[in-house]
Amino acid sequence: MQEQDEAIRTGVVWEASASEAPPGRTDDTHRTGQEQKPSPEDGAGEAVHGAVVHAPRVGDAASKRALLDDINARLRASLSTWHTYAILAWSRRWQTAEAYIQDPDLYREIVEEAREEVRRERATVAKKLDKARLRRDEAQVKLLTEQLADLERRAPSAMKMDALTLKARSGRLARQAALPVGIVAGPLAALLAGGMWWPLLAWPAAWAWLAVQGHGMAVAEGTATAEEASGEAAPVLPTPRPAPGGASAASSVTPVGASEAENAILAHLADWDRRAAGRGLEGVTPTPMPSLDSLGIRVVLKTSGRTTPDTLGKRMSAVRAALAVPRDVRTDLSPGDVGDEAVLRIRTRTPDRDMTWRPERAGIGVDTDTGEPVVLPKGRMLIAGTSGAGKSVLLRVVMAEALCAQEPTAVVYIDPKGEESGLWRGKVRCANTPGEIIALLREVGQESDERSQIMQKRRVSQWVPTEERPRIVVVVDEGAEIVSMDDPAEDIDVIKRLQPLATMGRSRGIDLKWATQKPLLGSGIPSQLNGVMQDRVVLRTAGRTENNQVLGADWSSHELELGGSALTNTGGRGPGQAPIQVWDLSDDAAILALPDAESWSHRPGHDETPAAPKASGIPPVLGAAVALLEMDPDANGIPGNDIARACDMDLLDAQEALLAAGVQARRYSQDGAQVRGYRRDALEEAARRYEK
Ligand SMILES: Nc1ncnc2c1ncn2[C@@H]1O[C@H](COP(=O)(O)OP(=O)(O)OP(=O)(O)O)[C@@H](O)[C@H]1O
Asked: Could you tell me where the Low complexity compositional bias lies (predicted)?
């Protein structure tokens, strides 16, 4: 009977018979490829009378047609799916092109370029003017002064800027449209003009290329795509993939307001079992509900087996890889509420903070991770950042912070562009032209030399700023302009005058801040300064080359955002740090509101530094401690750190030297508080011993 079944698989149908069949015939019933199931009305479960008959011949043709229809439907569905991918890729490509063409910053860039050109012309004329003055060529001086005045008045006309912006946008549009138009029109032209058909293959090729791109994008974004087998192309929706394991994976949620990047990470979390497999993350399971808050994604990871929250901490790179966390997004793992849980934070967001600079704000900005203020050490500093990175704003913060410092501080501002200086006049000393810059540096150099002599005389190794001789912060904006201005043959020896300030200024209370848009050796940072300017604050750089030059290959300043995001190698901060968001001092009114101050100038021969004990043979560290005491008559003592700093010594070395001089650190009271350090009476008594 079985053999008979196999032999009659096709070409036969079951046909119910109206007539009564003899009882034995029910054994002969068959269900074939085209079987007709008895409906309940037929009396399911009961033997139904009927007969196996040959299917009508027309059935052969119909089945072939059905097969063909089925193949066609699948092909259509597949084409439709890939077409959806092609459209996705095309729409993304066009969105990018549109954003590039409509870039709202284009106008600003063009205006900047025009201003830059005027600035360059102005600098050239100013340089010529200085040379003419040095030659005492009155005719040239007159001519060049007029030219300079003319350039000072010149401002780019709005109409010209509009026309240039339109031209630039048209150029961008033409460049973006060239390839698609070429692919569409080129083969047609070849067909019509030369009768060549094969260039038409460019169309399906371009379509296939787009489809593959679109598929790649959909996969990368974790989006659901068309169901190829369904016969109907589903729309491309930003829906995370379902978790195959279901229970063990985090819920597949699309939170309102989540960014594309966050959705991608959430989709990967939902697909944890598959994505974590083979990465050494066995025994780690995300709990079902990740959440989104002002810092980004938070998810609790449950550990089991040999994995603990501690060992998981060592596998963070595997966790990041499993979730495809972008490189610039930080991740932190902290202990959970119970011993086998860890909380994973994926910091995709920066909380809203009021970043406006105010005099009471500390440092240059905040660490975007911890929210703590970032205070830069005093001393020389290299500041770099490409156009628009926020260099001018950062320099404003540095200067405003210096002006508001407790310690007596003066700012001198070398600004060859001259635009910012207007805001600072009456508060800081500004120098714009080569003549002004040389004059200013000559004065600072004299001051530096005098301080050195005073320090030697006083036997101290560190300058302590006073009202008469304050800390001097020398800010050099647009270092590249200074480099190009430098012309020692014509007595414009700016770099030669800056170099000793960079090397020796720190101990003399003179801090050089060199800012440049092009942090490349030679053009933006003179090689004489590069070696000594090791403390650096770097905003976004133009590219990797600049990043490597200014920070090193393991840093990524070129990936920072424009507009005030910075990194620094000071204060123990390394390449993996969260960026610093610089305080926002872009408001001119805030600078104008700063208190006016007498601008610094060198006053020769002024020596108000209190004399150190004249005893011969007094140890320098004891001499420095007594000098510090004399400068602060209300002090009952001096903390060891202050003495060590004044001598440029390690605290331990200073303590040892003081012990050798017969003074021990003790507690003393100062302004109602107990302070540990060196008491006045002990220091003075030790100094007297050396006088005898
Ligand atoms: N710390 C900041 N906070 C908020 N916005 C900022 C900050 N720094 C810069 N920006 C924004 O970025 C713009 C460009 O900044 P800035 O003029 O400082 O750049 P720059 O590096 O000096 O560029 P350029 O060298 O071309 O003048 C500012 O107008 C401001 O809108």
From this structure: 223-234, 244-253
